[in-house]
Amino acid sequence: MAVGLALGGMLGFGLWLAITSLPWTRPRPDLATRLRLMTARGRLEFEAAQGRAGAPLFKSTALENLLRPLIEDAGGFLAKVMTRAGIGAADLDRRLALGWPGMTPAHFYGQKLASGLVLLVLFPSMNVMGVNPFGAWQIWMWLAGFGIGFALPDWMLESRLERRRTAVLMELPTMLDVLAIAASAGMSPEQALLETSRQMRGVLGDGLREVAREAGLGAATHAEGLRALAEREQVPELLSLADAWQSALEQGLPLGQAMLTLAETVRERKRARLLEEGGKSTVRMLFPVALLIFPVFLVVLLYPAGVELLGLGG
User: Fold this and answer.
1) Whole-model pTM?
2) Does a structural domain hold residue 220?
3) For the chain, what is the domain count?
């Protein structure tokens, strides 16, 4: 009886979540909001408000209104405790701004706590429902599930940052070639960088446009902006770009030739990294071969020989 009620409740809750997640069930903005979004100032104000509010945690509006305040409060409290204890990452704001735009530290810690509690409750719930194919789920499994769920957002953030760094490395040689062509065409270094930022797309193009905008406003020089971009993205090749830029300006060297040399160096580093990853893949392939393919291969070879020997012995 209890199992039937639990399964029925889970089914009803799932149907409710599915229905409330549909687009036509979400509240639509009023006419004044839609008219304000048609202007440039209105769109900027709306984007700024969205950035302050953070990304939505749930697709369902009901869950967003019901659970998000609890997650924010719990995440904010956990963030304060971990910061005072010296456990939290010092550069979490920078990493979230790069890998998870719109996510605040309070939301992040709230997600860590929520995902940990979900996996913590999962195992005792399966014990109650009798879903224990390997025996009853022990308490240490509950705690292990909480640990995995608590660390899951960190793994997701690191994966996002790694994809971003990979995108920067893939775009960097093309950007250096465009910068070299613009400098060789007679443009000044500042004009070449501005033109390159207009031609480039993706993560690196956005970063270059920000550098050009800050330099135009007088907030920082181009070399300082490139160095800040390299420190923000944590890509050593961008730091080499800032050094080459500064050296070309101080020593009066042609910027185009310096960028071409740096582009070739970046491509060589990329080839070396690809070869290194290929070597690691070869080592990683040994485990499935040794555990899965090799035993089957031995059985296929030894089974006919065993049958023949048994037949001769009989």
Assistant:
1) 0.65
2) yes
3) 1
